Amino acid sequence: MIMRVLMVVFLSVVVTTTLIGCGEPQETLTVIAGSELKDIEPKLDAIAKTTGVRLQMTYIGTLDGADQIVNGHDQYDLAWFSHAKYLSLLQGQTKRIKSEEKIGLSPVIPGVKESLARRWGWVDNPNVTWADIAAKARQGAFRYAMTDPTASNSGFSTVMGVQAAFAGSSDAITAEDVDVDKLQAFFSGQVLTSGSSGWLADAYVRDQDRIDGLFNYESILMNLNASGRLREKLILIYPKEGVVTADYPLILLNDIKRASYVKLVDYLKTSEFQQWMMENTNRRPVVSRVKASSKFPKGFQLELPFPSQLEAVNEILFAFLDQHRKPSHSIFVLDVSGSMEGDRLNSLKRALLNLTGEDTSLTGRFARFRNREIVTVISFNDAVDVHDNFDIGPQGKGIKDLRDSVHGLHAGGGTAIYNALEVAYDIAGDARAEDPGRFYSIVLMSDGDNTSGSNYADFNEFYARQQQELAGIRAFPVLFGGSNDREMNALAELTGGRVFDSRKYSLAHVFKKIRGYQ
Amino acid sequence: MSRRIVGPLISLLLAIGVGAAIYMSASEQFQEMNLEVVRGVSGSEKLPFFRDQRTIDTLAVDPFHLKLDVEKAGSRQIATSYNLKEYDFAFPAGIPAAEKIKQENHIKKSYQPFFTPMVIASWKPVADILIENDVVSVKDGAYYIVNMEKLLNLIIEKKRWTDLKGHEKYPANKSLLVTSTDIRKSNSAAMYLALASYVLNGNAIVQNMEQAKPLMEELGQLFLRQGFTESSSQAPFQNYLTMGPGKSPMVMIYEAQYLHEAARSEGAIGDDMVLLYPEPTLFTNHVLVPISENGQRLGEALTQDEGLQRIATDHGLRTKNIKLFNQFVKENQLAVPSYLVNVIEPPSYEVLEGMIQLIERKYTDDALM
To answer: Which of residues 10-49 of B touch A (CB under 8 A)?
Structure first.
C-alpha cells in the first residue's frame, strides 16, 4: 500500500514537473568557451531570463578547444572562443561549424609602461611599428610578457601578427616569408610566458617592477589600467602595420539547437547587451547603433592577414617553438618515494614520455620537448638524485637518453621534497647566471607530505636569502595523491608560479598544460 | 488524513497533464495534416527569406499548403556531393551549379525566381582614392561604378594602397585585394572568378580549358594572396559590417545582402559605407531545380506569387517584377541602379569547375612548398 502511494506520488511529481517545463520554456545549452569569457558570467542569469536559454559553460584554451571539437568525444551545443579561424581550418571536411556570429571585438596589442612609452615618443603616436617594438626588444630595453601561442589565443594572435607585419604585405603569409633573425630579435624580449591570458595579466601585476609591458587583449589591458593594481599605467600601442582582432564568434555546433541559438544571437546583439559588454568587459560592440565609447581610439585600425592553410599556421607555430622563441631550461623534480609504487609511478612515466614525442596528437606535438631545450630530471625519496641535463637537440640523442632515464625510475623510501627543491633551485640559478637567454622553470610533483630533510620554512629561508638570484624562476607544483595542498599553494605564491591539480585530470594532461608556462 | 487529500489531488493533476498532452499533440497534428512538407537544399544566402515568418505563412495557406524543410549547403557542394533523390528541390546560387545539377539528375525544368548582381562593398575614403586614380566613377551623381579591368590590373601588378594617388585617406601599406569567400566552397567567390576570367580573357567568356590555362596564374593570385577566407557568403559581409575598413577595404558580396541590411530598421549600414558596381558585372541567378512534384509547386509559387516576390524584394533580391524593386529602393532611399548594363554570363559549369580545381591545386602545392 505504502509502495503504491509512493509510486503515485512519484508519478505526480513527474507530471507536474513536465507541466511546469511546458509553461516556462527554458533550455540548457552546453558551451565550450575560452576562459576569458568568464567575464560574461554576471550576465548569464539575464540571458536565461530574456531568451529562455541557460548557458552551461566549460572553459578551455582556444587551440585545445578546437582540437576537442573536431577530435574529442564530448559533444557541445555551442562554442564561444576569441576567434574561429583555427577551428575553421582544423575542421576540414567535418563541417562542425553550423553557424557563427561575431559578438564582440578586441584587438591583441602591446601595453607599454608609460615612462618608457614617453621616453620613446610612443604616446599618442600612430606611427609606431612592429619593427620599432622589435628594435626595443633587441636592445633589451623592452622586456615583455606574452602567452604561449599554442595554448592561448592572445599569444597566438601576437605571433601571427608579428609574422604578417614582418612579411610586409597583405598577402597570405607562410613560415618562410620572414627572416628568422628578425623574429628571434622580436621574441628575445619575452621574459614571461603562460598558458592563459588571464594568468599572464596577474603574473604581470606581481612582477611589474621587473617587466616593461605585455601583449594581451585590449580589453584585458584596459581592465588592468582601471584595476588600481598597477604602479605605472600601461600605454596601449596600436602598431601601424595592423593588428589581429579577436571577434568572439558564438558558434553553433549542434544544428538541432538552432532555434535557441538564433534567440541567443538576437539577444547578444541587442543594444542593451552590447552596451553592457562594452562597459563591463571593455570589448568593442559589433553593432553600429551602439556608439563606441571614447576610451577606444578614433580612426580605423588595419587588420593583418591570416594564413589560409592549416599547414601554414602549424608551421609558423612550430617555427616559433623550435627557432624563434627563447629556448627553455625545464627542470622536473619528481617524487619516487615508496607511496609512488605502482599506478602513480606509471602515470608519471607516461606523462613524461608523452612529452618526449610519444603523444602524437596535435596538442601533443605542440607540447613536446623542443630541439633547443634543456631538460633536467631530479628524482627524490630520502635522497636526491640528479639525472643529466638532457640537451634535447635536433638529433634525438637527448630524447633517447631522457627516455631511458624515465624508464629507469623506481619507487621506494621517504620524501625529502625541500632538499630536492633546493637542489633544483641551485641548478637553475647557476645555469641562468651562465646562460641568461633562456626561460627557467621548475615543476614539482609529489604525492605526499615532506618526511625528511629541510621543511617548508627552511626552504622559505633558503629562497629569501637568494631572492635576487632566483627571482623569475617559477615553481609549478602539481597536486597529486596526498600532496600537501597548503604548502604547495604557498610555494607557488612565493615563487610566482601556479599550482596544477592532477586529481581532476590525468597527470599527462596536467604536464601538457604546464608546458604553456615553460 | 494527508493521504486522503493527496489521492484526489494526484488524480486531478494526472488528468490535467494527460489532457494537456493530448490537446497539444492533436492541434499540432491538425496543422501538419494540411501541409505538404517540401524538403530542399539551398545556398545559405536564401535562408533568411525562407525563415521569414511571412514566407512561412504565405506558403501555409491557399493555394499552396506547403511547409518548407530547408537545409543549407554551399552551391558547389550541392552540385557535387549531395544525393538529391531524397529531396524535393535544390536551390543553388548561380546558373553553372544549377546546370550541373540538372544534368546529373536528368532534369529539364528549372525556375529562376530571383537574381542579384555581384557588387563590391566598400568605404567612402577608399572609393575617393579609387576615383582619384580613375578606377571608380560616379554615375548619375548617385552610385559608383568600378572599372574591373583597371582594378584587376592594379591587383595583378601587386600595387599597394600606398602606391596610389591620394592614399592619405587610407594609408595602408597593404596590397590591393578584393576580399571574397573561399573559392573552394562558395558561389560568391566563383562569381568573382567568372567575372575576372572574362576581363582577363580580353572581355570574352572563357569557353574551354585551353583558353583558361594561360590565365590561371593571375586568377589564382586573386584568391591565394588573400590568406584566410571564410566559407560562407555571410561571413565576409558580417566582417565588413562590424570591423570597419581596416579589415577589408573591398568585399565581393551579393547586392541583396547589402540592400537587405540597409532596409532593416536596426540595420548596420553606416554613413561611410558605399557600394561599388563592377563594370562589367554579372548576376547570380538563384535557380530552383525541382526534383519532385512538390518541388515544382514551390518553384511556381516563387516565380508567380506577387506576395512572395514582395517578401523576396524586402530581402534585397531582384525579381522579374521591376516595379516592386524600384518601390523598395525608393522607400528605403537607396542609391542603386534599377537597370545594369554590360552584364556578362558566367562560363559553363565544366570550365568554371575546371578553373576552381586548378586553383584548389595551387592551395595544396603552396602548403607543401
So the answer is: 10, 13-14, 16-17, 20, 24
